[in-house]
Amino acid sequence: MPNLSSDLKSIINTNLSNLSASKIRAFDQKVSGIPGIIKLTIGEPDLATPDHIKKAAIRDINDDDSHYAPQAGKPQLLKAISCYLDRSIGVHYDPKDEICVTVGATGALNDVFMTLLNPGDKIIVPTPVWALYFQLIKMTGATPIQLDTKKDGFILTPEHLRHVLNGRGKGAKAIILTDPSNPTGRVYAKETLQQLAEVIKEYKIYSITDEIYAELVYGNAEHHSLSEYIPDRNILISGLSKAYAMTGWRLGYIAAPKQIMQSIQKVNAFLVTSVTDNVQMAAVEALNNGQSDPAEARAIYEKRLQFMQTGLEKLGFEMATPQGAFYIFAKIPEKYGIDDEQFAFELAQKAKVGVTPGRYFGKGGEGYVRLSYASSTEQLHESLKRITDFVNDL
């Protein structure tokens, strides 16, 4: 087994030395070895990809569709995405030059950050949030300006955004907003988005919206997009991983005005050349003929949310009402103060339930844990029983 030459060990991209590996994944791996553990740590749907989508991929393979696809995406898929956005948020994106297909929403984030950000730039990141944002931003040499939203129920208010843009975020180039939210499950009301759009216009910055959970909203909540109000400056990111249980297929996309999309498509082509043929055709099938699939998944997740939320609140856990995605962000018992990491580790060891410490999601996450209810109903029932026993023993 070869060892790297000692005179080469320090010759790497210096930005990497300032980046840490995913603490969410590291904690998940740490507790995975505990016998009998039920993991509510990762946002991984337990549902299977619908059969008609799988069959479309198999059909495409059998048709020998095995050559390079167009770099921005197959025309059929670009059209399907355009039609989906038309009917879901009422905004038309030209499939020819305003959409780009990517390797998952993570690939889309990379494309957008590499397109917009230069070393020294600032970008506003409301927290708690999916922590990979921080590392992807830092890889470009830019600085994420964390904006703690806990005091407002994990919703960014226009007043808070304006305050930050006049202070430590002055001169920021963009803001990224996750809606529905990972990890809090919060959904932005239409009126709040309209007011945020006015601030974004006033300060002449880009907005980036990660809408990967757009199809998973519950109760009276409705999903809206900043693209409805500022389509000329918003860059929309989404994909099929969550609503269609296609996390391993790695299919994402970006929609934006063509003037910036030209650069985004260039970056995407440099990074991946093109997205896998049969995956794209599976996505065409999902978007064109699978409109009922997210609704079926949504009904399952909503029942699980109601069960877990009711049970946790009876135990004294507090939370801002989750309305979307498939996470609960719960405040830990008073005994632990804000040591969510210790609480999560003891819960894993003693109760054999894995949850994710809230501090891993940035400022405002301390003292909370994230639980994913994308696990099976049977596992959720057992995990709540174990959490109940653990809390009662404290």
Helix/strand class = alpha/beta
Indicate the mean pLDDT. 96
Number of extended strands: 12
Q: Helix count?
A: 12
Strand content: 5-15%
Fourth CATH level, the homologous superfamily of the largest domain: Type I PLP-dependent aspartate aminotransferase-like (Major domain)
Unreliably modeled segments: none
Describe the structure.
Pfam families: Aminotran_1_2. Keywords: Aminotransferase, Pyridoxal phosphate, Transferase. Its EC number is 2.6.1.-. The protein has 394 residues and is an alpha/beta fold. The protein has two domains: 7-49 and 293-393, Aspartate Aminotransferase, domain 1 (Alpha-Beta Complex); 51-289, Type I PLP-dependent aspartate aminotransferase-like (Major domain) (Aspartate Aminotransferase, domain 2), CATH 3.40.640. The chain is built from twelve helices and twelve strands. The strands form three sheets. Strands 2-8-7-6-5-3-4 form a seven-stranded mixed beta sheet, with helices on both faces. It has a three-stranded antiparallel beta sheet with strand order 9-12-11. A two-stranded parallel sheet has the order 1-10. Strand 3 (122-127), helix 5 and strand 4 form a beta-alpha-beta unit. Helix 4 (104-116) packs across helix 8 (258-272) and helix 10 (293-314) runs parallel beside helix 12 (377-393). The model has no long low-confidence stretch (mean pLDDT 96).
